[in-house]
Amino acid sequence: MLDVSIRQSLGRFQLDIAFTAEERGVTALFGRSGSGKTSVINAIAGLTRPDSGHIRIGGTTYFDSAARVDVAVEKRRVGYVFQDSRLFPHMTVRSNLEFGLRRVPAAERRIALGPVVDLLGLGHLLDRRPRGLSGGEKQRVALGRALLAQPRLLLMDEPMASLDAGRKAEILPYIERLRDEMNIPIVLVSHALDEVIRLATTMVLIGEGRVVASGSVGAVMGRLDLSAVTGIHDTGAVLDLTVERHVEEDALSVLAFDGGRLMVPRVGRPVGAPVRLQIHARDVVLALEPPTNTSLRNTLSGRVTEIAESGPSSVDLRIAVGESVLIARVTRAAARDLDLAPGRAVVALVKGVAFEPDMMGAGPARVVDV
Amino acid sequence: MDFLSPMETTALLLSLRVAGLAIVVSLPLAVLAAWILGRYSFPGKTLFDGLVHLPLVLPPVVVGYILLITMGTKGVIGGWLLQTFGIRLIFTTEGASLAVAVTSFPLMVRAIRLSVEAIDTGLEAAARTLGAGPVDRFFTIVLPLMAPGLLSGAIVAFAAAMGEFGAVITFVSNIPGKTQTLPLAIYAATQEPGGDAMAARLATISFSVALIALMVSEFLAHRLRRLIGQG
User: Fold this and answer.
1) Residue B121 lies in a domain
2) Residue A275 located in a structural domain
3) Please, which residues have CB within 8 angstroms of residue A288's CB and are 6 or more apart in sequence?
4) A178 in a domain, yes or no?
5) Is-contact B104 B168, C-beta < 8 A?
6) Domain of residue A293, residue span
7) Which residues form a coiled coil (chain A) (predicted)?
């Protein structure tokens, strides 16, 4: 368990953050620029010192103002992947990778150079200097360097923010492999929603130095106040599903979750594999009864749990579907005419199905747009 | 060195020795001062900065005079050194080194400080997260990255030390073979009837040494920058 509870004066505003997260997987700190996300991981790393509070991981306390504990950065064993790589310019890639490794007693080295070089595809870069590397290559080296320091926890500060879309697509799969193949908790700072949806297990939504919401990605993405906090208008709930079966003759796959089934174009994942979908609010149509004679394949039964204004003429509705959440955006007039209010049973029709072409590769969760 | 007289050769070698010793001894102190000035802020920093740079703005004769009254055999420090260790600086080659070390110190600190300030503190933070303590970071990150500045600082200070006149002649006088460095020998030559040719030859030597030092400095700094991935 990662347990962070800190207060820190940062000139302009007060940072007051408390959250806990499972050690397994990726915890994403998500919020707009300047919301205090990076300050949180700097405090976890020990690069800055909170005024009060505590930071614990598993049984280890890094910081506790009450108990006067403040472990030095170099003793924390926290891997940090900086936004700007921060590779040592006077060393080769190999020396950069080995920098942390050589400072760990031999008996405590679980992660070796070879597997990391393979995992991150760094073999051909080992003898080069950081200067000549592309942005994506630099970030992969930085990732490897942090990993090889045998970290107890891996922190990533917008590791893809300085990369263009192509480079980003190049490094994302590596971070996914890291998450899935290495048993190291990762805390990812990001203001890119697609990154968070694709990588995160737990999501901590930060606004103005405070935690607005935290929990599973599905739960946090199902909130109606998300766009107010994040400034992102791409509202849409996230569903975690598994591949139930493939219908080869129609080139379709059936994905199941506790709230029902969705039929989508054939996904390149085996039966039983997890798949994560984001369903945009504008792609969800609501009806009071299952429609007949329609081309829409995907209907899910649920119940309205919350309604909120989302524009001059539109409202967003949160709909509980099994244990999961969907968000639908409808006109205010339609909501009034259908008498949509909390408690109302509805049928959600998911229209339009589009996939990211990248559906190959390993890993428990892939994001696709439905 | 056929074209140099024994006296001229002596003056050249003595100058190299005086300047070399001065640089070797003051370099670690200059690194420390540059490090403190470039990285930390503390009460009294302006005063410290001023003290370090004082020899740059003081007339060298004044520096020599201050050394004379503090480091002379009857001076506070000089007397103590003589009685405790039997070390005598006044009128000695080592004293000449001290004088040129003091006057060239600010030049060295300035060059090194610039290179300290140019090092991205983020790299040190990264090294910390990778388990490197302060001493470790200094030798693996800071020192290699400041090497070009260190080198050019040392060479510029060396050239300046070779040319120091006022502080040397005031503190250790003008003793051939002992404290008579190149500029002092030139001065002596100009004071003698018919010494013009000798003065001209010594001046040429001075000129050549300075030029070579600067060229070597540029060349090495360029190579070093390449080596640390910045050029």
Assistant:
1) yes
2) yes
3) A338, A345, A346, A347
4) yes
5) no
6) 236-369
7) none
Q: Which of B129, B146, B225 to mutate to test the interface with A (most CBs of A within 10 A)?
A: B129
For residues A124 and A263, membership in a common domain is answered with no
Contact A89 B141 (CB under 8 A): no
Q: Are residues A195 and A64 in the same domain?
A: yes
What is the residue type of B68? L
pLDDT in tens, chain A (370 residues): 899 999 999 887 899 999 999 888 899 999 888 888 999 999 999 999 999 999 999 889 999 999 999 999 999 999 999 999 999 999 999 999 999 999 999 998 988 999 899 888 899 999 999 998 988 899 999 999 999 999 999 999 998 887 777 777 777 888 888 888 888 899 999 988 888 888 899 999 998 899 999 999 888 888 888 777 776 667 888 888 899 999 999 888 899 999 999 888 888 888 998 888 888 888 889 999 888 888 777 889 999 999 998 888 999 999 999 999 999 999 999 999 999 999 999 999 987 544 443 333 333 334 444 4
Q: Which of B100, B102, B90 is nearest to B15 (CA)?
A: B100
Residues A183 and A115 in one domain: yes
Distances (CA, A) of B79 to B84, B85, B99: 8, 10, 17
What ipTM, to 2 d.p.? 0.81
Total number of domains constituting chain B? 1
Which one, of A285, A339, A316, lies nearest residue A221 by Cα? A316
Rounded to a whole number of angstroms, the distance from the CA of A63 to the nearest CA of chain B is 15
Strand A274-280 and strand A367-369: the pairing is parallel
For A147, name the nearest residue in chain B, comparing CA atoms only.
B130
Question: What are the backbone angles phi and psi of residue A275, rounded to the nearest 5°?
Answer: -135, 140
Using DSSP bridges, classify how beta strands A52-57 and A2-10 pair: parallel, antiparallel or unpaired.
antiparallel
Q: Give the SS3 label for residue A357.
A: coil
CATH number of the CATH domain containing A355: 2.40.50.100
Q: Hunting for tokens 């990812």 — which residue is that?
A: A188
* C-alpha–C-alpha distance, residues A18 and A316, integer Å: 28
CB contact under 8 A, B122 and A47: no
Residues A166 and A278 placed together within one structural domain of the fold: no
Whether B211 and chain A come into contact, CB under 8 Å, resolves to no
Cβ separation A88–B130 shorter than 8 A: no
Total domains, chain A: 2
Domain limit, last residue, from A190, A221, A252? A221
Determine, for residues A89 and B230 on separate chains, whether the beta-carbon distance falls below 8 Å.
yes
Decide if B178 contacts B169 (C-beta within 8 A).
no
Alpha-carbon distance of A267 to A367, in angstroms, equals: 11
Question: Cβ contacts of residue B3 below 8 Å, gap of 6+?
Answer: B201
CB distance B155 to B216 below 8 Å: yes
Dihedral pair phi/psi, residue B117, rounded to 5°: -65, -25
Contact B128 A73 (CB under 8 A): yes
Is residue B139 in some structural domain?
Answer: yes
SS3 call for B95: helix
Distance from CA of B228 to the nearest CA of A (A): 4
Whether residue A231 is contained in a domain is answered as no
**Cβ contacts (< 8 Å) between B128 and chain A: which residues?**
46-47, 73-74
- What number of other Cβ atoms are within 10 A of residue A123's Cβ? 9
Contact A44, A56 (CB under 8 A): no
Q: Are residues A217 and A268 in the same domain?
A: no
